[in-house]
Design brief:
Elements lengths: L1 H30 L9 H17 L25 H21 L6 H8 L3 H7 L3 H26 L5 H18 L1 H14 L2 H20 L7 H25 L7 H18 L1
Helix pairs in contact: 1-2, 3-4, 3-6, 3-8, 6-7, 6-8, 6-9, 7-11, 9-10, 10-11
Length: 274
Amino acid sequence: MCLAALHALAQCLVAGVNIVVFEFRNLVRDFVGRPLHGGSPCLVWRGLFFKSIAWRRFGCSSFAGRQEVADIPLKPRRKPVQSRSRVTQNAILDAFVRLLLERGYARLTIRDIVAIAGVGLGTLYEYFPNKKSIAANCIHQRFKSVGDLMLACIESARGKPLAEMVDALLDTVVALHTERTEEWSALIFLERQISDEQAYRVLYRHFVGIWGQAIRACAGPPRDELVEDVAYVLHAAVYGLLYQTLMCRPHAVGTPEFRRQLGELVHGYLGGAM
């Protein structure tokens, strides 16, 4: 009877130790970005202590179930309103891009980002819940910059013939992607890893809408029923050739030959459609 009781007690102790080690490994995976194998008892208890603090910091019980990365929202926790907050967020995003080029997405960690950005770990978590959120927001900001420049170009070319409007937009888009070709190439590859169907559709509608605005802002625009179809093809042609080239032949984007080919593709379509 005593032996059976001792055996049961030993099993309970082993199970308890396994739970502690498992929780510590989760801690490292959450805050460092890679799993840990092994570890001293001192580090285990220290890890559980800090994990408890971190959970309380974000409004969770220290013994609550661990939230999976897929369940964490990708939106920033805090929108930068003041200039200082915006500088902090931009520093985090810039550090992410730098590490993305140096190490690749899989190998960079949250701690790497805060070290390069020069911010505290707690400060980063005020803005972003995880690495995927940083990546998604970085990609969003890049595409937003493209859309903003296209809209500004449309305003400056308002009232001009469609061919001139299109050339102005092509010059603007190509010049923007030529400035930081390696960064664009890495971000486009990353977009295909982390973006879901909904995010892609939102991006698609946004740029088709911009091309639609460009068509309507021209002198003698086509009939309204044609605008959406023409805008879709223009976006598909520019997006497809530009981003496929950035992924497969990034150094070709800044060449006159690429700009000529892109122009021939778009104007060739417009010549038949209009």
